[in-house]
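Let's practice the habit of predicting before peeking. Look at the sequence and jot down your guess about where helices and strands might fall. Then scroll down.
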Amino acid sequence: MNGIATISTSAFAKVHRSRGVSLIEAMAVICLVLPFVLLLVDASVFYAGLTTNEKACREACRAASMGAPAAVRKGEPDRNAQAAIQPFVAKSFLINVSPDLKITENVRMPLPEPPFGGPVNGEVSVTTRTYITLPFTCHVLHHTPVTVVANRTFVYTWILPSDITNVKQ
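Done guessing? Here is the structure:
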């Protein structure tokens, strides 16, 4: 009976010992893999912030180029760009698109004049800024968000309508 008890005790010890070894191996793998997973999450948040900033800049510049330049209607490119960027502002606690835009335009003279009308020759540039807070690395390396800047330039697509209604032949 002693021999049987000894065999069952050693089998019991082997099972528990192998569970302990498996637990240690699992913890070692987690310690090696977890930093890579966290860096992957940070990289995906950073990529999402970059693409959000690029899309916001493109939409703001497109909207600014579709209206009249400031030389014809004061402040219209600013209003159009601000209206286009509003859906991107304050969307996430990790990705914050700044509502402050830098808008510059280059309009070549002569401007079309009423009553004849015509297209505007020039372009508009919009610069946007986005603050990206990386969820893991940002708190370890530094405590400030990463700032990314995008700049786009579009040509004006606005045409001053003609006021000529009566043409005598």
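How did you do? The mean pLDDT is 83.
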